[in-house]
């Protein structure tokens, strides 16, 4: 009877642990790239550091990468005029912001806090690749910023797309709100799809751990 009771307890522990992992995966935390570059930084305006796009500068709140829930954060966080990043040129075909996540990731959402003047981003594409030279890549559709040239502080535009595994992501700048020599955005954030490429503990493995725990407990008892 004790044995059955113990086994049942282990099953409950294993099941609840599995549940916890599932909930974490579904939460869709913000994940951040390990490095960032622009295809054509504007040498005339070096005060607009390119890091501004990723360092949470100008945001009304801060997140913790890998922990903070993307959807709830981007819904309530605004950006001020300070903390913008700039691309030289206005929508030239080779003009893009590029992000390296350091390993294969799976992302299904992007938040962009735009700049609030005529240099603000208008239309862009999202392109992803497993290769740094993008010789094989996937291009999502053309996205249009709903919020541009508007208020300060400014809310985030959020875009969703089919998740896929990649390491590198480009935001290809197509058009801006009219400024002829540069495109500026304040900040971006990425949503993990919850489909982690790092293997999560499988339910059977957790059940095994539970049974192992039971075995150890019984051994100590004897
Ligand atoms: Ca910023």
Summarize the structure in words:
The structure is a single chain. This protein is α+β, with helices and mostly antiparallel strands and 222 residues long. The chain has three helices and nine strands; from the N terminus they run H-E-E-H-E-E-E-E-E-E-E-H. Strands 1, 2, 3, 4, 5, 6, 7, 8 and 9 form a nine-stranded antiparallel sheet that branches. Helix 1 (2-26) runs antiparallel to helix 3 (203-221). The longest helix is centred in the N-terminal third of the chain and has 25 residues, at 2-26. The two termini are 16 Å apart. The protein binds calcium ion. Calcium ion binds at residues 52-53, 57-58, 83, 186-187.
DSSP strand tally: 9
The largest sheet, given as strand count, sense and whether it forms a barrel, is: 9 strands, antiparallel
Q: Which range best describes the helical content: under 10%, 10-25%, 25-40%, 40-55%, 55-70% or over 70%?
A: 10-25%
Oligomeric description of these chains: single chain
Cα end-to-end separation = 16 Å
Shape field: globular
Spatial extent as radius of gyration: 22 Å
* Mean of pLDDT: 78
- Residue share in β-strands: 35-45%
Provide the list of bound ligands, each named once. Answer: calcium ion
Number of distinct helices: 3
Secondary-structure content class: alpha+beta
Poorly predicted regions are 1-26, 198-205
SSE order, one letter for each helix or strand: HEEHEEEEEEEH
